[in-house]
Amino acid sequence: MPKALEITLIVVLILLAIGILPLLFQLRRTAQGIEAFLQSSKRDLAQIAEDVHASRLRMDHLAGSFQLYLDELMGFVQLMGDMGRTAKNFHAKFSSTFDSASRNLGGIIGGISAVLAFFKNRKKPSYEEHQL
Questions:
Q1: Residue extents of the structural domains in the chain
Q2: Is the full-model pTM beyond 0.70?
Q3: Mean pLDDT per segment of 10 residues, for the chain of length 132 residues?
């Protein structure tokens, strides 16, 4: 192999090594930057996970409180429904009793007025009929 070719090959290899060294340093810095980014992301994700967990606990607490409120409201609504049904039943009984009593009272008054009318319209014996 000629000496010029050997020198050219050596120079190319040296230039290649010189060109690759900054690339390798840049690759190392990039890897360090990625490592720092991943560590920061890990801390941020851990904080986000804690925040989400705390929010879920608060939502569970609110859901429990809301459930208690709804249970109390449901009890109140059922009580109001029971009171309404009781009032309706009482009204129906009172109304039927009142209607029955008024019909009976009307019948009694009608009967009394019929008896009074009978006695009132009954012919009184005249004086001439008495003398016979």
A1: 3-119
A2: no
A3: 85 88 92 95 95 96 94 92 88 76 80 81 59 55
